[in-house]
Write a structure and sequence with these properties.
258 residues, alpha/beta, Rossmann fold, seven-stranded mixed beta sheet, two-stranded antiparallel sheet, 9 strands
Length: 258
């Protein structure tokens, strides 16, 4: 990240700025930085000014306590102002939930595209509540590795793969941003679809899912599109939560050109 803006609360937010055309801000999800969406940015830069950034507490961005979702909305507002005063938003996973909330708050966005925001079915509320309690406890006690494990289990990763991840070189980086798991958990609220908030979004919304993803994620995506007054739902065949940028980029390019 080679550029920086200062959010209203004084936090430095790092971002990149490449390509030409209408601005598109890319919002990463949990355990991710702007580098995570860089491959997608590269595939959009021939038609758009693409802006991946490090959300607060991650990568080259700063942080300031106490955390509030409103501060992340302010970060996005400052970023949009810095790149021209208007932008489209793309958010992946919990970053998609943040992008939807930013649009509901009235930020100057043209369109919002989201990939698999993990809103749970009503029956999943208890699991989310238990996750929040255990995550809060682990982070308060400084058990960052345990916090990462909790998140990976929530995503459905097999226990053997979690233990393998603990032995990998990437584990230290995962522990480094583990405190931001609480931020994404706050963004997700009780985990249920915020239908009333999404119904207030007046700009076009594209909700995308991978055809090989779990059924509850496909349901969540369909419900986002249904709740948005100008919502559209699209499923990408054979894709999972780790969507191929080569498959996703043309879909986003078409939507952001409308």
């Amino acid at each position: 990240m080679d550029k920086q803006i200062i959010s209203p609360d004084g936090t430095a937010i790092a971002y990149q700025h490449s390509g030409r055309g209408p601005a598109v801000v890319l919002v990463s999800g949990a355990m991710s930085t702007g580098a995570t969406v860089a491959p997608l940015a590269a595939r959009l830069a021939d038609r758009f000014t693409v802006v991946p950034y490090d959300r607060r507490g991650r990568g080259a961005s700063g942080d300031r306590a106490p955390y509030a979702v409103a501060r992340e909305i302010e970060d996005l507002a400052a970023l949009i102002e810095a790149v021209g005063g208007e932008a489209a938003l793309y958010g992946v996973s919990s970053g998609g939930a943040l992008a939807l909330e930013a649009a509901a708050c009235g930020l100057p966005v043209r369109q919002v595209a989201v990939y698999e925001p993990p809103f749970a079915a009503p029956g999943g509320k208890k699991e989310r509540t238990e996750y929040t309690e255990r995550l809060t406890e682990a982070l308060a006690e400084g058990r960052r590795g345990d916090a990462v494990e909790l998140f990976l289990r929530l995503t459905g990763l097999a226990e053997q793969m979690i233990q393998g991840a603990r032995q990998s070189p990437m584990w230290a980086d995962m522990e480094a941003i583990a405190p931001t798991l609480a931020y994404d958990d706050t963004v997700m609220g009780d985990g249920l679809l915020p239908r009333e908030r999404i119904s207030s979004i007046g700009v076009p919304v594209l909700a995308v899912a991978g055809g090989a993803s779990p059924g509850w994620l496909l349901t969540a995506v369909a419900e986002v599109a249904d709740a948005a007054p100008k919502g559209t739902c699209l499923t990408l065949e054979d894709q999972t939560h780790r969507v191929d940028p080569d498959v996703l980029a043309p879909v986003l390019a078409e939507f952001f050109t409308l």
